[in-house]
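in:
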């Protein structure tokens, strides 16, 4: 069996989907392939020796998608093979033979108002019959999906997102140290609002921002916090549990979230959450 995951970001970087991809490939003793488009600025996690990493895409968007189709075709997938997608649009870029013969799994990675944009709904209407399994976060999501696409109702599986961090046994000490851990993406994470909130707090409060993202996003955040004594950008962390132990509360100001994995991790370490 071949297990193939397709996601724009390579899983050696930070992010909820990337963490899930790493976990999937670690579970199965088979031929594992990860197709990705963008190299991370920094490899936060080592490549798995069990996975072949295949980069696709260059140039404009059309060329990138044609490259994606070609990369999947070259794997010569058959009936016993599994392709895992994290966005409905990627159904459009699977070769016809793969859609027809291989098992296709679509994983919910965001609330449906974000996950199913108008173009995505068109793709789903055309290709939903090619999906073998659709995993969602909650029973409520399962009901919502059945309303949107009734023909999928028998192919939906509820798999809640879990937390791999060991639950902390000690309560966090009171302090004025605040933290957030997130992918650096202003459009979604809304760091500007977070910083405005911290600046309005009484004297002594300190916010540390951990995370990574595209170079342009990271540079924009660095400029945003420059000269601000109340806020620091700390860069990425690969030891979330030990990082969280140094703070009194977790902050989130996202405009939207898929499931909010970092919130679960923060609660597991005893941090109150302001979101």
């Amino acid at each position: 069996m071949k297990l193939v995951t397709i996601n724009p970001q390579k899983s050696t970087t930070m992010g909820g989907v990337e963490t899930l991809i790493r976990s999937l490939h670690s579970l199965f003793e088979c031929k594992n392939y990860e197709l990705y488009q963008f190299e991370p600025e920094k490899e936060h996690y080592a490549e798995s020796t069990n996975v072949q990493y295949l980069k696709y895409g260059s140039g404009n968007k059309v060329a990138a998608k044609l490259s994606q189709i070609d990369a999947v075709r070259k794997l010569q997938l058959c009936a016993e093979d599994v392709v895992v997608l994290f966005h409905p649009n990627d159904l459009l870029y699977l070769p016809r033979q793969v859609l027809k013969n291989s098992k296709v799994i679509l994983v919910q990675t965001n609330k449906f108002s974000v996950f199913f944009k108008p173009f995505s709904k068109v793709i789903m209407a055309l290709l939903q019959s090619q999906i073998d399994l659709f995993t969602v976060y909650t029973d409520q999501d399962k009901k919502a999906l059945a309303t949107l696409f009734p023909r999928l109702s028998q192919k939906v599986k509820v798999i809640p997102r879990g937390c791999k961090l060991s639950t902390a046994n000690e309560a966090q000490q009171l302090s004025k140290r605040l933290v957030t851990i997130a992918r650096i993406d202003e459009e979604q994470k809304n760091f500007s609002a977070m910083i405005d909130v911290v600046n309005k707090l009484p004297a002594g409060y300190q916010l540390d921002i951990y995370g990574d993202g595209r170079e342009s996003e990271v540079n924009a955040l660095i400029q945003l916090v420059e000269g601000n004594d109340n806020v620091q950008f700390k860069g990425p962390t690969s030891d979330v549990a030990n990082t969280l132990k140094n703070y009194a509360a977790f902050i989130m100001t996202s405009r939207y979230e898929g499931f909010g994995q970092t919130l679960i991790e923060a609660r597991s370490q005893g941090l109150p959450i302001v979101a």
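note: The chain has a mean pLDDT of 92.
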